[in-house]
Amino acid sequence: MQRTAWLLMATASLTLGCEGLQSPAGLDHVHEVAAVTPEQVAWSPAPEVVPEGAELAVLEGDPAEAEPFVVRMRMPDGYNFPAHSHPHAERVTVIEGTMHLAMGHRLDRDAAEAYPTGSYVAIPTDEPHQVWAEEQLVIQVTGVGPLEVDYVDPADDPRTGQTAAVGGGCPLCQLAAASEPSR
């Protein structure tokens, strides 16, 4: 009897103490199986908020909405995505190629890390970073929208030199609408 009471108390303590390990609100939104094979990935030119030359595919969700999303970005060899940050954390998996990543407020390409195929990087909220490709690079980005790109140097914003918000009427919204994931 004492052992049962101890087990119940231990289980309750673990359950209550593991609150931070549970999924954030909204991440359990999947109500049906969604699958995309490599042949089904619908690549489109990346929206104008991203420097020219990259392609983007929306696999799940809508990056313009306050909901979880998964996108893939394909960049040619030598492609550079200038220093920027996002108001939400992003989780990046390298699908193909090598991703070079420089972090922090003082970006130093010489201090950058190289992440080969299969690597995973979690980038905190508002953390400035710069990415460039060695050979063709395909990354998968998972996050919670709305996805916004804030360039460290506004002159790097390929659209207007201003913070690039991904919201109503934006290029990513149009891309998300056009790239309905296969089920």
UniProtKB/TrEMBL annotation:
UniProt domain ChrR-like cupin: residue ranges: 34-147
Record Pfam families: Cupin_7
InterPro entries: ChrR-like_cupin_dom, RmlC-like_jellyroll, RmlC_Cupin_sf
Name recorded for this polypeptide: Cupin domain-containing protein
PROSITE patterns per record: PROKAR_LIPOPROTEIN
